[in-house]
Fold:
Amino acid sequence: MWKCAVDDPKFNDINASQWRWYAHMFSIDEELEFKKNLELVEYLASFWNSEAVNNIKKNREKKNNTTIDENIIKENTSDKYKENPLIKALQKIRENANLTNTDIDANNSSEIKRTKAPIDLDKLAKISRI
Structure:
């Protein structure tokens, strides 16, 4: 890249921010090179099978332009998902897992909610062997 040895003295004065900037610029250059080569390949392939090239472009754009379904947004904002039996089962498992610390005052928002270790460590040892 710089056409010099790795232990060249000019690298001694480069700080961490400059290294990050160089890495970022190299990644941008690689991305631009990739896009340029992709466009060239698509252009050349369009002479043989333009319909296939158009289909590939459309599929690639669909993957990049994923949108959230309106039903998912409505479901999550209406708290309907809480009625799902699978969610309730997961909540029940979590309640019985002894992971939440009930000693913390719920009204005191400055207190950080912590997890505590299970009381029965034999079960923990069995889980770790699985």
